[in-house]
Amino acid sequence: LLVTAKNSYLTKINKQDYERTAGRYISYISNADLINREFDDFVKVSNHLYKLLFQNSPLPVDRIIISPDGKIFPFESLVTSVTNQQPAYFLNDHAVSYTYSARFLMNDFASNPAAYGNNFMGFAPVNYPSAFSLAALSGSDRSLHKIADYFDNAVSQVSSHASRNNFMRQFSQYRIIQLYTHAADSSSNNEPVIYFADSALY
Length: 202
Hints:
Blueprint lengths: L1 E2 L4 E2 L5 H15 L2 H6 L1 H16 L9 E3 L12 E5 L2 E4 L6 E3 L19 E7 L15 H9 L5 E5 L5 H7 L3 E6 L3 E2 L8 E3 L4 E2 L1
Helix pairs in contact: 1-3
């Protein structure tokens, strides 16, 4: 999905080709010896990945913001063209930055911060139910209070107050959330999990 000042473009590409090409591209840029040894092939792979992503979308020459999903790689070193065996790179024409979510770009950063109301809320359970078999995070409450001192309208939920229910009820009211706790990208339920003082959030 490409969104410019004037238009939006949604292009369907071959998923198998993309996965295979992106995987090879990542293997090159993560291995200096390999990319130097097989530079010509890197150029072909990089250019093919660029064409897969942008060949049907007129990309403006200017700043571009990437919101990636799935495979994550630097767009700066994509080869956009080759002239007299000299590759031209994406960064020659674009100032690239990244964001974790396109929704983030809809924030009004120029407005008065006071209009947001609550700036910061932190959670530090410190201790956990024995059923979780998790080590206590001693001192996390003190550290959280130090972090909160940097913000106006900050709230710190520690020990038993750092509960799942308190988090679910209040987190949407704050601009910044600090979770000083245990978490995992997978669990017995085969999904990410965050641990609170009383229960877990899957």
